[in-house]
Design goal:
Belongs to the bacterial ribosomal protein bS16 family. This protein has 82 residues and is an alpha+beta fold. The chain has three helices and five strands. Strand 3 and strand 4 form a beta hairpin. It is globular.
Length: 82
């Protein structure tokens, strides 16, 4: 099963995340199928590749709860319905 989840990178206490599409059985920091965006919780900065995310969701990828919340804030689900 393909999941949309966060991949951690950065220094200690200066963490950032990449939003990636990965197989659900792969480890958190393993090689992703595709990188779909960026999330920085310290500054609440988010950059998303919306067409690629919509494509993955239509193919049946399941987002984690955190990624789902980020996508709701960015109104990605509105574009999925259209």
């Amino acid at each position: 099963m393909i999941k949309l989840r966060l991949k951690r990178y950065g220094k200690k206490r200066e963490v950032s995340y990449r939003i990636v599409a990965m197989n659900s059985r792969d480890r958190r920091d393993g090689r992703p199928l595709e990188e779909l965006g960026f999330y920085n919780p310290r500054t609440d900065e988010t950059r998303l590749d919306v067409p690629a995310i919509v494509k993955r969701l239509k193919e049946g990828a399941q987002p984690t709860k955190t990624v789902q919340h980020i996508l709701q804030k960015a109104n990605v689900y509105e574009q999925l319905k259209a």
